Amino acid sequence: MSQNAKCESPILFPLIQFDSETMFPSGNVQRLIRELRDVMDDEALCDWFSRPNTWLDGAIPAQTMARCACDVFDAARADRYVLRG
Asked: What is the pTM of this model?
């Protein structure tokens, strides 16, 4: 592959994080991002939303948001506290 060749791949975003009418991030997702932004970079935030979370008894935050956003906020707050030390 030459140095000038570009590797393009699609970036996929879970639809759950967007308001269905405006397609902007939902208020809940924006709130979570603000909670975690100072302790995680973009890649870590994506991982946090899509991986099982101990504070949620192994549930995935992105899947849990619709049915119990309060628990996801508590998990984000706990992870932020742990990461800050």
From this structure: 0.73
